[in-house]
Structure formats: structure tokens, C-alpha cells
Amino acid sequence: MDRGWVGEQLVEAAQHGDREAISAIIDGAHPHVRRFAQHLCASSADTEDAAQEALIILYRKIGTLRAATAIASWMFRIVRNECLRRTRYLLDRGPQIGPAVPDAVASAEDEVLRRLDTDQLTQAISALPDLQRRVLIMRDVLGYPGHATAVALGLSTAAMKSQLHRARAAIRHSLNP
Fold first, then answer.
1. Which of 33, 110, 136, 159 could lock onto 106 through a cystine, CB 3.0 to 4.6 A?
2. Any idea what the Cα angle at residue 143 is, between residues 124 and 168, rounded to 5°?
3. What is the pTM of this model?
4. pLDDT tens, 127-159?
5. What DSSP line would sit under 4-64, residue for residue?
6. Which class for 58: exposed (0-12), middle (13-18), buried (19 or more C-beta within 10 A)?
7. Would you say 27 and 58 are in contact if contact means Cβ atoms under 8 Å apart?
8. How far apart are CA 2 and CA 50, in angstroms?
9. Are the beta carbons of 142 and 43 closer than 8 angstroms?
């Protein structure tokens, strides 16, 4: 990562409330945060939302950062967590055709198993290569048509289907070793 956008003195000034320093850090961080979010998030809308959320958290909590030199890893951890949170939300919600109807009251044991399955699935999806993850989420989670997914990702329909097949196979292998 290019560390030229932030220096230790700039971070320390921002931590002490210097508005110009905070503004400079946010302006410098934005392209890096956005690029990182593009690799982790399922859609361009999630990319933008995760990047904005990370910058808001940076603005609000820069004073709590213990080591000024750790700002890049801190920011990327925030982006990663935000992308994972958004993916978990989509997975928990599932395909929505009409208004969500709450399930019957499940036992605590069923709820723990459901959450465990969701966490394992989220980790398996996160481990996929970028293109496979995007194809899988667009098709299987968001429900985009195949042609629309291919066009959005700049692929032929055949290449999109191939990536989707590989992603599904990797998920199956990850969940059932």
C-alpha cells in the first residue's frame, strides 16, 4: 500500500482535533479504502457504502487509534468488517420476494446452528477469488440474471457461468471437506 498519503505527524495532529489534518487523511485515504472495498464487497453499491462507512468511522474515532503508524491496517480492517457485515446481512435475509415473514420461534439450539452455518458460509465466500465471489453473490445472493451479471462484470455469459461453477464447487468443498 502507498503510505505517502499519511504521515505519523499528520495522524497525531488529527488525533488532537486538527480539522485540516483530519480532512487531509480522509481525502488521502478515500481512493485506497475504495479500492480495497472493491475487492471485498459483493456489489458496487456495497463498495461505496463500505468505503463511506469506513471514512465516517475514521473521522469519528481517529482519536482512539493507539499507534499512528497503524492507520492503514486499521482502515482496512474496518472496510473488511463492513463488507462482511453487508454479506452476512444478505445471507441472513436470503432472497426476498415479498415482505419478510418472521420464522416460527426457533429453539436456541436451532438459532446457534443457523448462525454457525452462516458464519462458515460467509468465511467460505470471503475466501473465494475476487471474480468468483462477485459472480456468486450477484447470481445466488442478489438474484441477478446471468446476462446482467456477465455484463456488469465485463464477462461473456460463458465465462460468467464458468466462474459461477468454480465458485459453487469451492464453496461445496469448503463446507464439506
1. 110
2. 30
3. 0.49
4. 899 899 889 888 877 778 888 888 888 999 999
5. GG--HHHHHHHHTT-HHHHHHHHHHHHHHHHHHHHHH-SSHHHHHHHHHHHHHHHHHHGGG
6. buried
7. no
8. 20
9. yes
